[in-house]
Q: What sequence folds into this?
């Protein structure tokens, strides 16, 4: 198979990833080659086989919903690109 | 006395207790060696020499006080220096994960595995280089430059825990933490001639590990010998309520018998791991090591893991899918550099476009594609079902054998730049290590000789879930009768 430039752009948009034209072209070829390789999985009969979704399957964990001390806010904000009034400051995402 | 940097962990602990060496002397010896070799190897992304020496002084005070009182009640590894892969958070030290998108990030907490070792008395002297977000097999994907293999500085150390492997091989530290999502502890251990354990999924907490593929990630140890790796693992492991996938079990004790007797143990050799394209010397050394294990009493038989050929495509759909979700958090909002923009969504796109390297972008794209509408069932869903078949192969094999012996990688360390811009060729380096991650089982890699160019060859032993004890027992027995793990690269001429 071969990914079309529009498909690469669509995936990049879904992933919120700004790609240069050179990257789009290069990734189209490389991702196509990887997906071709992965296509050998289609030949495998998995009828009736349950999926494995976790490292060691068969366990679900819930903890009690109790308030506990969290990380220190001031310390967390030290890593922020922009902070204001004890909050992360971001450009507008809605008009 | 031996050079301080040549001491095994047991020897170092013994010498520290007796006062034959101080923690300051040991830490200073490591720092001096790092200072001398780092320009040639670039194993580290950050060093904390002053903090390390201060901690060493405090350890020395406690060691001296204990000697005065004839007390042995001390943290088990008090005063021992170690290094930590840069994908693990250590409060007070930067954590970049080898990525420009985390440049300047100072984690506000410490990973559980590291915190437990700190409680046991270790001193973290630095953070080691890694492929960006642990995605790679060579450390060439680090945003901060490649690490060089101490056995041949024109070659890669393997990856992604290449900085940790090179640091241990070059005797910069006695041991280092690594992480293994598809072979990232075992393959660099093999390329650098050291011992590396990837434990059972869930044995070590992932809290404080920068997430890559959450159903595959595990924290491991690189050290010179199996006994050294076990000394750290038994103190790191065990239940952690901060990681929902942590196994609710106490840490394994990992006792090592005094004699190299493997009578009663059965080792399987899977025919699917000796494929065309494997370097002949790798096959010879691994088969030779299996014969040595049989001479120590183990029974050897040929086995089959029929779905092995599917492990690579399964991994390179599942791991990127998980990565594409995990790496959504790098958007310039809470940490890391932010690209300038007046619009929020545009800011995310530009920050991520500028901050991620090529391999990370490729895997995000691949994972996003595999999870996207119309392709989910054919790619991700089918890969998850094939993963079940791979896991069942191992479950069936472990009904007849106690451990599985196989090469770690098809070749010894390759040249820097050899795989150029060919991601698929790089992925093929992981063909023998990925299955253990997909099945959640432990794998222990250790050196079993050298190829004709003087490069280390590694073998891995895989065991059933929670079978670490028998893997350590076998590798330790092998290391009692061989000295490959004691060989050091010649870096001093």
A:
């Amino acid at each position: 198979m071969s990914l079309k430039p529009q498909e690469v752009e669509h995936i990049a948009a879904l992933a919120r990833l700004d790609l240069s034209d050179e990257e789009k072209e290069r990734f189209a070829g490389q991702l196509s080659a990887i997906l071709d390789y992965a296509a050998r999985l289609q030949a495998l009969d998995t009828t009736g086989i349950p999926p494995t979704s976790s490292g060691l399957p068969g366990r679900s964990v819930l903890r009690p919903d109790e308030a506990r001390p969290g990380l220190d806010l001031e310390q967390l904000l030290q890593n922020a690109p922009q902070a204001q009034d004890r909050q992360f400051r971001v450009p507008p995402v809605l008009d | 006395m031996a050079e301080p940097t040549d001491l095994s962990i047991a020897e170092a602990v013994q010498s520290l207790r007796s006062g034959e060496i101080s923690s300051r002397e040991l830490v200073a010896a490591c720092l001096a060696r790092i200072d001398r070799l780092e320009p040639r190897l670039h194993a580290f992304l950050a060093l904390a020499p002053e903090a390390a020496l201060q901690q060493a002084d405090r350890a020395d005070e406690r060691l001296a006080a204990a000697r005065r009182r004839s007390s042995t009640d001390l943290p088990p590894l008090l005063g021992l220096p170690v290094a930590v892969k840069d994908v693990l958070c250590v409060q007070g030290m930067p954590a970049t994960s080898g990525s420009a998108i985390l440049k300047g990030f100072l984690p506000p907490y410490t990973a559980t595995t590291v915190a437990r070792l700190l409680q046991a008395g270790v001193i973290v002297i630095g953070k080691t280089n890694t492929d960006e977000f642990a995605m790679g097999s060579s450390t060439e994907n680090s945003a901060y430059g490649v690490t060089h293999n101490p056995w041949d500085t024109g070659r890669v150390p393997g990856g992604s825990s290449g900085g940790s492997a090179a640091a241990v091989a070059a005797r910069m530290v006695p041991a280092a933490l690594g992480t293994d999502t598809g072979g990232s502890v075992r393959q660099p251990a093999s390329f650098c001639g050291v011992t590396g354990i990837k434990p059972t999924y869930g044995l070590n907490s992932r809290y404080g590990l920068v997430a890559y593929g959450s159903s595959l990630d595990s924290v491991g140890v690189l050290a010179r010998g199996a006994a050294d790796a076990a000394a750290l693992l038994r103190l790191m492991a065990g239940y952690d309520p901060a990681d929902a996938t942590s196994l609710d079990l106490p840490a394994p004790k990992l006792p090592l018998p005094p004699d190299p007797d493997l009578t009663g143990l059965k080792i399987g050799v899977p025919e699917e791991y000796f494929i065309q394209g494997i370097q002949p010397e790798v096959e010879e050394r691994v088969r030779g090591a299996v014969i040595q294990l049989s001479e120590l009493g183990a029974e050897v038989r040929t086995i089959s893991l029929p779905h092995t050929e599917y492990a690579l495509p399964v991994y390179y759909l599942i791991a990127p899918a998980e990565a594409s979700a995990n790496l959504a958090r790098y958007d310039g909002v809470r940490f890391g550099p932010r690209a300038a923009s007046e619009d929020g969504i545009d800011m995310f796109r530009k920050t991520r476009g500028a901050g991620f390297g090529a391999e990370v972008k490729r895997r995000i794209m691949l994972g996003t594609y595999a999870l996207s509408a119309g392709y989910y069932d054919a790619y991700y869903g089918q890969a998850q079902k094939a993963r079940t078949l791979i896991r069942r192969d191992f479950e069936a094999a472990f009904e007849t054998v106690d451990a599985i012996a196989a090469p770690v990688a098809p070749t010894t360390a390759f040249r820097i730049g050899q795989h150029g811009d060919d991601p698929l060729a790089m992925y093929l380096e992981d063909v023998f290590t990925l299955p253990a991650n997909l099945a959640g089982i432990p794998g222990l890699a250790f050196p079993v000789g050298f190829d004709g160019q003087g490069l280390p060859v590694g073998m891995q032993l895989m065991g059933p879930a929670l079978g670490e004890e028998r893997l350590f027992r076998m590798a330790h027995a092998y290391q009692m009768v061989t000295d490959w793990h004691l060989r050091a690269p010649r870096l001093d001429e």
The first helix of chain A runs from residue 5 to 14. Helices of chain A lie at 5-14, 21-38, 73-77. The radius of gyration of chain A is 22 Å.
